[in-house]
Write the structure tokens for this entry.
Amino acid sequence: MKRKAMGATSSCHDRRLSSTFIIPVEILEEIFLNLPPDQVVCTCQLVCRQWKEVTNSESLWVERCRREGYRPRNASRKPKDWKLFYFMCKKRRNLLKNPIAEHQFDNWKIVENGGDKWAVEDVMVPHPDERVKKNFVTSYFSCMKSQLIHLEKEGYNPSFMDDFQPAIKISDWYAPRWDCGSQYEICVELLNIEKKPIQTFSPETVHFEQWNDQQWNQNYGPGVRYIKFTHGGKDTKFWAGWYGIRVTNSCVEICPSEDI
């Protein structure tokens, strides 16, 4: 009886093996392209060796990027890792809250509030981004404000930041008044878990003379647990009111290195 039972078990096992077959790669790719990307990475690749190879294949992620409209901004720089490029693009967004003064000073910490203090006003000169209708404006003594970005809370966990050390792109828009001199300052710090600086981006103060063309200007700085963004300035004529530098549409992004 014992040998008979063993024989039956073996036969059943053989039937299970005989029912296993290899799915063509093209069909697997199409299935994975129609599943949520997190499910593909976290679940599908654990099924078997073939599925793992397909989920990690370059062709799968190139096609996924194509279908969802993700492509390098510099066409001459192709990603080394298309899967990483895909997820970087999908998560990419401005990590600063309230960058264009839609909600007054919500989410900003006022560091210095000199003269007649910070204010919010309608843009005097149209901004290149038509969505920008307001800007922050400084007064006749130093006005500075800052925002602290907690990267893990934004979805960038410590292991990701340490293993991949992704590029960090900073941009800010600033403009003087045409009839008053002013100065602009920016400082961006990459901080560790104790909020101590690892790296600091702090260019020289930008000065504008009186009677300038008051056009919008933009500056960049590429690349961590936190990012501290601080900017501001003042006017240089010490006029009462708000004649100092204007700032708006500030941006901090974690982005593919191909886009730096």
